[in-house]
Amino acid sequence: MTMLQAVSPIDGRVLGDYETGTPASIERQIKMARAAAELWTSHEIATRAKILAQLGPILLRELDAIVEIIMQTTGKVRTEALLGEIYPVLDLIHYYQKHAGRILNDQGVPTSPFAFPGATAVIERRPYGVVAVISPWNYPFQLSVAPMLSALFAGNAVILKTSELSLPVGQLIVDLFGKLKLPAGLVQWFVGDGHSGEQLIDAGPDLVFFTGGLATGRAVMQRAALHPIPVILELGGKDPMLVFADAQLERARDAALYGAFSNSGQVCISVERLFVQQDCYETFVDSLVEGTAQLKVGHGPEGDLGAMTSPRQFAIIEAHYQDALAQGAKASGPLERQGNYVKPVVIWNVHHGMRIMREETFGPLLPVMPFKTEADVVQLANDNDYGLNASIWSEDFDKAKRVARQLQTGNWVINDVIKNVGHPGLPFGGVKKSGFGRYHGAEGLRQFTYPVSGLTSRSQLSKEPNWFPYTDQRYEQFKGYMDFVYGAGTLYQRIRRNWLALQAFREYSAFDLTQRWQNFRLMLPWKRDY
Q: Order of strands, edge to edge, in the sheet holding 271-277?
């Protein structure tokens, strides 16, 4: 038996000991999940939605206790746990309760009356079966429960694998779902460290949803490819914030502070690169430095930034800070650490040769760089391997939207930061090395299903036009039909040059071509035998 111990990043207090899973135990879990999924998917979507919607009242009833567990596990301040972890989940439950049925309903597709006489076509959405959700340590509640809900609304079973740094939150999640009237085994939790994700994938779930860093995402994708299993990857970001001189600069300053330092910068869509137009650059940097000095670090009544969840992350933060200063950057202060608390720092005089402008920092550092024109800032923003989110600031909305359309990103927001990821109706995900696939919204819900195409023929014909026998004459007739449908010229010209071929297909058509041709002739402005 192997045990993992959970320790609070706030004060080092032991939060619990957890027995890890084994290859044999995960195989049993997969088997239970498959049986539960068969029962769950037999329910109508409305029934599933009604059951899952009951999670909302449970969250509201136990709000303070849930916040406390999240805070102790992650090091977040209470308000961050409330707004960043729980509120988006409540919003997503409400959205899918209202819209899941419409999103997942069968979709009718038009059919050609000649190629498919008397036929109807439909696209069904079917659940994969068992979805493995591998979640990160920075938002272990939201980034577990949101994809879990998407999978469950779509009709799947879920096996959750949380980070080894988030075990109390994993226990919390399965306990909360255990209060719903779900089939036994529909929601399960697999306990383990980073290597245990390989065991979960090797056990053969039907879909893997992974949120985390690029290196681990690559490993997940490689492992899943061995089986093969489809994956959805929500990876890191190096998100740019673009501030034009015509923006509301005080609001933009406050947004930059929140966007960069919320959860101590441990947000996949943190503002990690700030570009400010040259006309207001110096005053904006001064304002940022002043605002940063006013932020409070700690878990007091007025704390803004909590503790870093992973002490290992501090080594990356320190490396980026030192690399920038060694190349001539200036900082608002030294990099100060007390336990797992890190004071936020603004850094300027930076360039894209520095690590802080190219690699994901995932900590409370905010590099600032000037730009002159729209074209300049678009080039700077796109000069990165990541493409998760972007923030554009201007009172000229036409300009802001024009810039947004040129950015290589999966998501953008104008005159706000971070909050757009929480919109339940907008699909969220990245491009480039920020991953692929989406969650949230209609598209995100459908990602947890696969399409099945169906065609129903109600034809009373003895045989279809494409059936045997084939002859040279039949070949020419098909050529004529295709020229009639897809060839150049007016309807009259296409009918006239293909008349003999069309006559050969009269018995298969849903309309009488001869009658339609006679009607067409009567509409002509002259009398002539064609």
A: 330-331, 345-348, 365-371, 271-277, 239-243, 391-393, 413-414
The torsion defined by the Cα of 10, 362, 144 and 209, in degrees rounded to 10, comes to -150
Q: Looking at 19-33, 382-396, 515-529, which range is the least confident one?
A: 515-529
Q: What is the DSSP string of 184-251?
A: TTSEEE----TTHHHHHHHT--SEEEEES-HHHHHHHHHHHHTTT--EEEE----EEEEE-TTS-HHH
Indicate the angle between helix axes 281-293 and 249-261, nearest 10 degrees.
50
522 has pLDDT over 80: no
Q: What is the pLDDT of residue 118?
A: 81
Q: Categorize the per-residue pLDDT at 512 as very low, low, confident or very high, splitting at 50, 70 and 90.
A: very low
Token pair in block for residue 325: 């200063």
Name 424's Cβ contacts closer than 8 Å, sequence gap at least 6: 88, 91, 92, 94, 95, 96, 440, 441
Name the nearest CA neighbour of 81 among 139, 166, 131, 132: 139
Q: Write down the pTM of the prediction.
A: 0.93
Task: Label residue 249 exposed, middle or buried (CB < 10 Å: 0-12, 13-18, 19+).
Answer: middle
Q: What percent of the chain has pLDDT over 90?
A: 89
Question: 84-111 pLDDT, tens per residue?
Answer: 999 999 999 999 999 999 999 999 999 8
The reported pLDDT for the residue numbered 503 is 87
DSSP annotation of 426: S
Q: Is 379 helix (H, G, I), strand (E, B) or coil?
A: helix
Annotation marks residue 268 as catalytic: yes
Question: Can you tell me the distance from the alpha carbon of 6 to that of 191, in angstroms, rounded to the nearest whole number?
Answer: 12
**What is the pLDDT at residue 360?**
97
Let me know: does 362 contact 266? Beta carbons within 8 Å: yes
Judging by beta carbons within 10 Å of its beta carbon (0-12, 13-18, 19+), is residue 56 exposed, middle or buried?
A: middle
Per-residue b or e along 458-489, where b marks 16 or more CB atoms closer than 10 Å to that residue's CB: eeeeeeebeeeeeeeeeeebeebbeebeeeee
Q: With contact defined as beta carbons under 8 Å apart, do 306 and 10 qualify?
A: yes
Residue of 268, 280, 359, 360 with catalytic role: 268
Backbone φ and ψ of 139, nearest 5°: -130, 70
d(C-alpha 491, C-alpha 75), whole Å? 71
- Single out the catalytic residue among 234, 272, 359, 360: 234
Ramachandran region of residue 46, left (φ > 0), alpha (ψ -120 to 50) or beta? Answer: alpha
pLDDT in tens, 255-299: 999 999 999 999 999 999 999 999 999 999 999 999 999 999 999
234 as an active site residue: the answer is yes
Query: Which domains are present in the chain?
Result: 3-235+443-453 (3.40.605.10), 239-420 (3.40.309.10), 472-522 (no CATH)
> What is the enclosing helix (H) or strand (E) of 387?
strand 386-387
**Alpha carbon 18 to chain centroid distance?**
30
The β-bridge relationship of strands 239-243 and 187-189 is: unpaired
Tokens at 104, concatenated = 């997942």
